[in-house]
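Please check this one:

***
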Amino acid sequence: MKSAAICLMLFCGWGVTNRVVAEENPKLDSPQWNDLLASEHPCLPPGLTKLTNWPGEITLNSLAELILKEHIAPVEFSGLAAEDLAAARRLPGPITSVPLYQALDWLSEVGLSWHWDGTRIQLYPEDVGGDPVTTRQYDVRALNDQGWTQEELLHVIQDGTTGPWFKIDGIGGTIQAAGPVVIVRHEHRVQMEVMQLLHQLDLNQAT
C-alpha cells in the first residue's frame, strides 16, 4: 500500500512573471531568452515559447497564418463558424515580444481557449460562466516516491473532478505531466477540486 505522502503544490503564474518581464524588456527577442523559456516549460515545444507579436485587431484566419509562419505551429479551429474566422475582431493587444503560449492564454479575455495536442494548436470557445482559466503546476514527487505514476495521477485527477477535460470531452481544460509535476490548465473551480483531491489522496495514504 502506498504510504503517507505530502503533496507539495507549486502554483505557477506563467502569465504574471513573463508579462512583467516582457513589459520591462520589450525587445527581449534573443535565442538565449527563448532557450530560458523553453527550459522553464519543458512540456512546450520551442514554437510555443518563442516570442510573438500581433496587432490588436486581426481575423482569426490571419492570426492562424501568422502563427504558422512565425512559429511553425498549425492552428485548428473547433466550434467556430466560418464568419467568426473571417471577421476582424479586437484581440488582447497589440502583443509585443510575449511568449506565444502566454499570448494564447490572453485570448480568454475574448472567450477563446486553446490546447496543444502535440502536433497543432486547437482554438475553441471557452465555456460561458466567467470563471477565469489559469495554469498551475502541482509538484507530485512525494506521491511518486510512494509508488504513484504520473499516468495514474492524470487518470485520478480527470476521473475525480467535474471537468470537463479536453482529452475526455473534447472541450474544457488540459492536463499533462512534465517531469515531477502535473500541469493543469483549467477554470479556478476545477483547480480547487484538484487541490482538494490531491490533499485527500495524501490523507488516505496516511491511514
DSSP finds ten helices and ten strands in the chain. Strands lie at 51-54, 57-59, 75-77, 88-90, 95-99, 112-116, 121-125, 133-139, 174-178, 181-187. Confidence is low (pLDDT under 50) at residues 1-30, 32-42. The two ends are 10 Å apart (CA to CA).
